[in-house]
Amino acid sequence: VQFVESGGGLVQPGGSLKLSCAKSGFTVIYAIGWFRQAPGKEREGVSCINFSSGHTYYADSVKGRFTISRDSSKNTVYLQMNSLKPEDTAVYYCTTVPCDVQAMGTRSDYWGQGTQVTVSS
Length: 121
Known about the structure:
Layout: E1 2-6, E2 9-11, E3 17-24, E4 31-37, E5 44-50, E6 56-58, E7 66-71, E8 76-81, E9 90-95, E10 115-119
Parallel strand pairs: 2-10
Antiparallel strand pairs: 1-3, 3-8, 4-5, 4-9, 5-6, 7-8, 9-10
């Protein structure tokens, strides 16, 4: 299974971006999560969506600003990011991890190249 992230870019504080995560391969997966890693910081889980239950999870730092969604016909998961802040600047990755409304997994063997998001004026 492979994941390809896209949609990153440079945006001013308060702006919006929509990231896409395209999954390829025949492996059946049940959830996808978005992660981000800023320079000098550890990778952190941002949000995930469980395909079976429909449950979604958001880190406190993005709750109310980010929305995760899925288009099953396109094997694609999206992350709509609104009210962006400079601290959202990071490389964003998607992969398959366990996902529940209270938590998301952190380990995966499948990582893409990521997409850079820079929030700056």
